[in-house]
């Protein structure tokens, strides 16, 4: 950084950012993500690096090309993840010779704003474990059972309703309805009640994080994979599709709330 630029930064009240030397923590956090949930996991990795202080407030993230290579994601995916963090108040982008993506000096505290307790982390892990056991099992059972015309129509209708949500709030409600519908078509009232209960628990955490447009689009595609597998009575594909879908949500929740 030149002397003139440094003085300008100091005069503006900003912390002067210097070049960062990669550490073992950088290497651990900025490692390749899985292809299935690239966007959600990229958001999680960046948030984790910020929250753990690997990239401190006021400092710059690694250059876009380098970061995309290290995470093994496309630059489009990385830009969308960074845009999501900008909209959530974690980073800002600056242009010019000394530009880049910088961590904001004051970070949002969304869990506190939503009144989540200090035990939120343990509660989240417990809820996610229960959710995975119930909902992966529900998808498997629905595919194994084979659906009649009524159940197939109900499940497909809920999937389409979710995709046609009017806004982000409406999307969360319709998404909840879709997940309960997967349990409904197993014809098990007990399983349906259990999935509905765990969905109410997970919604408490989902309401504390932003609804990301890229994640909504990805979720809709995964809903289609789940429904396609169930209607084809492909048990393994149904388990895999639901598991991947739940992992995407878990990545975002851990990123924003951990």
Show unreliable segments. Answer: 1-19
Write out the strand line-up for the largest beta sheet, numbering strands in chain order.
1-2
In which range does the helix fraction lie?
55-70%
Q: How big is the Rg?
A: 21 Å
- The CATH architecture designation of the largest domain is Up-down Bundle
Q: CATH-wise, what's the superfamily of the largest domain?
A: GntR ligand-binding domain-like
Q: Report mean pLDDT, rounded to a whole number.
A: 85
Name the helix and strand elements from N-terminus to C-terminus, one letter apiece. HHHHHEEHHHHHHH
User: Count the helices. How many?
Assistant: 12
**Span from first to last CA?**
34 Å
Find the structural class using helix and strand composition: mainly alpha
Task: Describe the structure in your own words.
The protein starts with a helix and ends with a helix. The protein is elongated. It has helices at residues 3-11, 24-29, 38-51, 64-71, 75-87, 110-113, 120-145, 149-163, 168-184, 189-206, 213-231, 235-257; strands at residues 91-94, 100-103. The protein has two domains: 15-108, Orthogonal Bundle (Arc Repressor Mutant, subunit A); 112-257, GntR ligand-binding domain-like (Four Helix Bundle (Hemerythrin (Met), subunit A), Up-down Bundle). Helix 7 (120-145) packs parallel to helix 11 and helix 9 (168-184) runs antiparallel to helix 10. 67% of the residues lie in helices and 3% in strands. The protein is mostly helical and 258 residues long.
């Amino acid at each position: 950084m030149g002397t003139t630029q440094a003085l300008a930064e100091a005069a503006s009240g900003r912390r002067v950012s210097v070049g960062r030397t990669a550490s073992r923590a950088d290497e651990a956090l900025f490692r390749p993500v899985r292809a299935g949930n690239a966007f959600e996991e990229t958001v999680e990795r960046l948030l984790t690096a910020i929250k753990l202080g690997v990239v401190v407030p006021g400092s710059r993230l690694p250059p876009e090309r380098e970061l995309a290579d290290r995470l093994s994601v496309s630059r489009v995916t990385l830009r969308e993840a960074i845009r999501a963090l900008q909209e959530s108040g974690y980073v800002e982008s600056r242009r010019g010779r000394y530009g880049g993506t910088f961590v904001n000096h004051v970070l949002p505290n969304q869990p506190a704003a939503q009144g989540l307790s200090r035990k939120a982390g343990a509660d989240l892990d417990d809820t996610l474990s229960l959710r995975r056991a119930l909902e992966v099992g529900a998808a498997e059972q629905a595919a194994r059972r084979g659906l009649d015309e009524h159940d197939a129509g109900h499940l497909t209708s809920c999937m389409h309703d979710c995709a046609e949500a009017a806004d982000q709030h409406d999307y969360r409600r319709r998404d909840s309805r879709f997940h309960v519908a997967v349990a409904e078509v197993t014809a098990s009232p007990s399983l349906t009640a259990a999935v509905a209960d765990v969905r109410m628990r997970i919604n408490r955490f989902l309401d504390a994080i932003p609804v990301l447009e890229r994640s909504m689009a990805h979720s809709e595609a995964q809903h289609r994979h789940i429904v396609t597998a169930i209607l084809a009575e492909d048990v393994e594909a149904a388990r895999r599709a639901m598991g991947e879908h739940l992992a995407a949500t878990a990545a975002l929740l851990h990123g924003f709330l951990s």
